[in-house]
Amino acid sequence: MQRIPEPLKLLVEQLARLPGLGPKSAMRAAMTLLKWPEAEVRQLGRNVYELRDALHLCSRCGGLADSDPCPLCADPVRDPAQLCLVAEWDSMLTLEEGNFYKGFYMILGGLLAPLDHSPAEALEMERLHTRLAEGQVRELILALGATAEAEATATYVRDQVASRFPDVRITRLAQGIPLGAEVKYMDRETLRQSLQYRQPL
Asked: CA quadruple 37, 43, 47, 48: dihedral positive or negative?
């Protein structure tokens, strides 16, 4: 049986630890890299090597950036009265791609998982309280999702914020039947939330 050369084996093992890549996919990725021009492979290596030095967390929103504050937090055109709270950075990217929200963001750093006993101390509540204490935010938009963990986190954040900042309006993303869907195909929880968060016509 042919032995895999040690350098290739080490690379495949590391690549296989990335999300969505198993051992076979990692091997295919490694073999593809071997077919690339040498200059491109070396540039990729440099980019990976310098990634941690080039990126840091924005002190305002907690997002990844190459400047502090990040370009979103430094944008003077955005509305300081609105703050959208998301669980992770990729959620912020998804919302921002739509180009329909013009307020600011803050990354909470995860969700509470009651069954896993994930501690509330892991959430960036201190950063949120500091931001709200500045007095500019009038509406805190909870964009945390519709899972059990998101519901538990939304309740926790609401209770924490409402007691300390009673003038801040707390809202959440609308939940329920998606556009183009029929009621008869909806699951029970979606229907429950659709009724609970119904809107006037």
From this structure: positive
Residues 44 and 117 in one domain: no
DSSP secondary-structure letter at 4?
Answer: P
| Peptide bond connecting 119 to the previous residue in cis, omega within 30 degrees of 0 | no
Determine the Cα–Cα distance for residues 143 and 124; give it in Å rounded to an integer: 15
Half-sphere exposure of 118 (CA within 13 A, CB side): 15
Contact 111, 149 (CB under 8 A): yes
Q: What is the pLDDT of residues 98-133, one digit of tens each?
A: 888 999 999 999 888 766 666 677 788 999 999 999
Q: Indicate the helix (H) or strand (E) that contains 8.
A: helix 6-15
Full domain range(s) for residue 129: 76-196
- Segment 191-196 long-range contacts (CB within 8 Å, at least 24 positions apart): 193/146
Q: Own/partner pairs for 95-103, CB < 8 Å, 24+ apart?
A: 95/143, 96/72, 102/77, 102/78, 103/78, 103/79, 103/139, 103/141
The tokens describing 40, both together, are: 């491109």
Here the CATH number for the domain that contains residue 41 is 1.10.8.420
pLDDT tens digit string along 130-185? 999 999 999 999 998 888 888 889 999 999 999 999 999 999 888 777 777 787 88
